[in-house]
């Protein structure tokens, strides 16, 4: 796995941008207090502004429900009202993205076949291997090349700050078969390790896995939104990718 830091990205306003030729991976920040809450008018306006900002034709996202449901956007009709947590497309000039405020955003890229995916993986999605399910669907529907696949893990609440119940701890240990000393520190869960376990199981090369080392809860240098850190109201980050 390759660790990425803020300096590895192009910073433009409140976006961290990673360019892969025709494909761009973008993680929003809370630098300008801009929130992407799809249930608020200001959030919809901020989402729609991405189209003009990046000179795109459209933007797509799902009504997230902490599931393992994966959709394919083929350009025929919008999926904005569909309930699910992962979106795949090969359509150019359309951003696909996910909302987070501690959960893990994952972007998957196959440059060879011009296919991208955006995944929202909270503890439930992680527990149910939504990333592995997305990779399998990409392979079945788009014949992705395992040797070319790149996986980007974005800002989320990390093991340093993510304490769970004893019951959930036992469930994760039983489910994943990951060494407890790696998966937990006390009751602090390493969501990323679960995701890495599924990504490696699928066959993604180690040097094609990238992790942006930012914790939404305790990061000081980069302002981010965190559900656990907030008191009442909290903003939403939007992590997305597009093909041009």
Automatic annotation (TrEMBL):
CDD domains xref list: YfiH
Matching InterPro entries: Cu_polyphenol_OxRdtase, Cu_polyphenol_OxRdtase_sf, Cytotoxic_necrot_fac-like_cat
Q: Which Pfam families match?
A: Cu-oxidase_4
* UniProt KW keywords: Hydrolase, Metal-binding, Transferase, Zinc
SUPFAM superfamilies xref list: CNF1/YfiH-like putative cysteine hydrolases
Reaction(s) catalysed (UniProt annotation)? adenosine + phosphate = alpha-D-ribose 1-phosphate + adenine; adenosine + H2O + H(+) = inosine + NH4(+); inosine + phosphate = alpha-D-ribose 1-phosphate + hypoxanthine; S-methyl-5'-thioadenosine + phosphate = 5-(methylsulfanyl)-alpha-D-ribose 1-phosphate + adenine
Q: What does this protein do?
A: Purine nucleoside enzyme that catalyzes the phosphorolysis of adenosine and inosine nucleosides, yielding D-ribose 1-phosphate and the respective free bases, adenine and hypoxanthine. Also catalyzes the phosphorolysis of S-methyl-5'-thioadenosine into adenine and S-methyl-5-thio-alpha-D-ribose 1-phosphate. Also has adenosine deaminase activity.
Record's family? Answer: Belongs to the purine nucleoside phosphorylase YfiH/LACC1 family.
By what name is this protein known? Answer: Purine nucleoside phosphorylase
**Organism for this UniProt entry:** Clostridium gallinarum
What phylogenetic lineage does the species belong to? Bacteria, Bacillati, Bacillota, Clostridia, Eubacteriales
Gene coding for it: pgeF
């Amino acid at each position: 796995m390759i660790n990425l830091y803020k300096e590895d990205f192009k910073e433009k306003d409140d976006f961290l941008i990673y360019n892969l030729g025709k494909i761009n991976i973008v993680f929003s920040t809370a630098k300008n207090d801009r929130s992407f809450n799809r249930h608020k008018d200001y959030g919809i306006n901020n989402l729609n502004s991405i189209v003009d900002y990046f000179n795109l034709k459209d933007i797509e996202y799902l009504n997230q429900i902490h599931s393992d449901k994966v959709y394919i956007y083929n350009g025929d009709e919008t999926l904005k009202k569909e309930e699910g947590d992962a979106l795949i497309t090969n359509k150019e000039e359309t951003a696909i993205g996910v909302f987070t405020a501690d959960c893990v955003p994952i972007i998957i890229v196959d440059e060879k076949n011009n296919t991208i995916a955006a995944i929202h993986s909270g503890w439930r999605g992680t527990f149910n291997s939504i990333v592995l399910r997305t990779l399998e669907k990409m392979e079945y529907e788009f014949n992705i090349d395992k040797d070319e696949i790149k996986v980007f893990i974005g800002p989320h609440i990390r093991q340093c700050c993510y304490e769970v119940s004893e019951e959930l701890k036992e469930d994760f240990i039983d489910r994943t078969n990951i060494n407890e000393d790696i998966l937990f520190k006390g009751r602090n869960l390493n969501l990323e390790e679960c995701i890495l376990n599924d990504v490696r199981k699928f066959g993604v090369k180690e040097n094609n896995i990238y992790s942006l080392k930012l914790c939404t809860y305790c990061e000081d240098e980069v302002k981010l939104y965190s559900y656990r850190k907030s008191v009442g109201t909290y903003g939403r980050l939007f992590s997305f990718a597009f093909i041009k």
